[in-house]
């Protein structure tokens, strides 16, 4: 059992979780302020979520 | 595909043998049934090849594999250009795309700018790619040159991802060589279509004090290579993570041989496969929009900030 590898994997998961949560929070607030722009905000949110998740997957893969 | 034959207890393989193409002082093409899934040694004009752990090695007539200290084989590996299942699936996907979109294109000329037939479902997607992905990023003037590449990219990645979810066991975009080639195409197109404005912004960013220019140059140069690299890794890691999760959960059904564990694993596998359908579309969309973004950077015109 490699403890550093396990701890690293957990930290990556925490990092991705915080990142995606932050994106979701920003998107929800923006939708709340301007409900007409729902489509554009959703598109931008999905793009940034894919970027963050891609980075998380890459880190997990290297690990 | 293989199953265990009940009568003899040996493995019975069901499938079509595909050609193996090797380059080893000249092209050697033979059917993969000669390699017989790693059990027999193929003899082609006094050279012997053996399939061992998924790779083809050059051996002698007895099929010896020489190992070094760590246990890795040290036989010569000839250049392998074989037609594998992934290659056949890619050819089938391209054929499917060609038939679909050719019939869509022809239906326009016959029905007066109204699409008919199966291709109708893809028309809104094509328009979406043109209006929301290509024009905002690349600009009105020269988005047409890149539209064919972006459309091909989107539908190819989408269809390949979807096929990877089927029970046929075909893994195209989960192969890092495939995503490497897709990202390489994006990189080549951005490099070839880069204007002097683009290269100036990378090596000598105008409008900054001189020390900032020297700091920014290596970072921007790294960015030129890292951006397609992340495209490759993102697609590969998302798809392969989905496949591994599915495989693990489906195997758990057979490991838990009671009602509770198997049904829970089945439910989890079902939900993960629904998410994977979303991921298939999303990853194709992300790859396309980021490629369009990079093309937009490359062909940006001089304008006042």
What descriptors fit this protein?
heterodimer; A: 63 residues; mainly alpha; B: 305 residues; 3-stranded antiparallel beta sheet; 7 helices; globular
Biggest interface between chains: A-B, 12 and 12 residues
Strand content of chain B: 5-15%
Order of helices and strands of chain A: HH
Helix content, binned percent of chain A: over 70%
Individual helix count of chain A: 2
Structural class of chain A: mainly alpha
**Mean pLDDT of chain B, nearest integer?**
79
Structural class of the helix and strand makeup of chain B? mainly alpha
Main β-sheet description of chain A: none
Span between N and C termini of chain A? Answer: 14 Å
Query: What is the element string of chain B, with H for helices and E for strands?
Result: EEEEEEEEHHHHHHH
Instruction: Give start-end ranges of low-pLDDT stretches of chain B.
Output: none
Radius of gyration of chain A: 15 Å
Question: How large is the share of residues in beta strands of chain A?
Answer: under 5%
> What's the shape of chain B?
globular
Q: pLDDT below 50 for ≥5 consecutive residues: which ranges of chain A?
A: none
């Amino acid at each position: 059992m490699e403890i550093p590898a396990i701890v690293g994997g957990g930290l990556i998961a925490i990092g991705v979780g915080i990142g995606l949560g932050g994106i979701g929070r920003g998107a929800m607030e923006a939708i709340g302020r301007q409900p007409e722009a729902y489509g554009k905000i959703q598109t931008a949110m999905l793009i940034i979520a894919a970027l963050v998740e891609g980075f998380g997957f890459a880190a997990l893969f290297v690990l | 595909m293989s199953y265990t034959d009940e009568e003899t207890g040996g493995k019975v393989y069901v499938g079509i043998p595909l050609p193996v193409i090797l380059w080893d002082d000249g092209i050697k093409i033979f059917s993969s049934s000669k390699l017989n899934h790693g059990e027999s040694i193929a003899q082609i004009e006094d050279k012997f090849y053996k399939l061992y752990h998924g790779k083809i090695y050059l051996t002698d007539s007895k099929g010896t594999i020489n190992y070094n200290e760590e246990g890795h084989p040290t036989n010569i590996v000839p250049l392998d250009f074989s037609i594998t299942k992934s290659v056949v699936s890619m050819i089938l996907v391209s054929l499917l795309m060609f038939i679909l979109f050719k019939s869509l294109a022809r239906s326009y000329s016959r029905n007066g700018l109204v699409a008919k037939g199966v291709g109708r479902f893809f028309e809104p997607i094509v328009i979406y790619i043109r209006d929301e992905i290509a024009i905002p990023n690349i600009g009105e003037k020269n988005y047409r040159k890149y539209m064919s590449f972006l459309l091909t990219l989107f539908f190819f990645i989408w269809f390949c991802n979807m096929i990877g979810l089927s029970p046929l066991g075909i893994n195209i975009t989960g192969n890092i060589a495939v995503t490497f080639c897709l990202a390489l195409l994006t990189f080549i197109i951005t490099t070839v279509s880069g204007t002097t404005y683009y290269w100036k912004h990378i090596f000598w960013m105008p409008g900054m004090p001189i020390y900032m220019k020297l700091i920014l140059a290596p970072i921007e140069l790294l960015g030129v290579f890292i951006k397609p690299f992340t495209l490759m890794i993102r697609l590969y890691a998302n798809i392969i993570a989905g496949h591994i999760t599915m495989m693990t959960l489906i195997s758990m059904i057979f490991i838990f041989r009671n009602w509770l564990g198997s049904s829970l694993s089945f439910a989890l596998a079902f939900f993960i496969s629904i998410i994977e359908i979303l991921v298939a579309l999303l990853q194709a969309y992300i790859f396309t929009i980021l490629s369009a973004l990079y093309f937009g950077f490359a062909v940006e015109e001089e304008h006042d900030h």
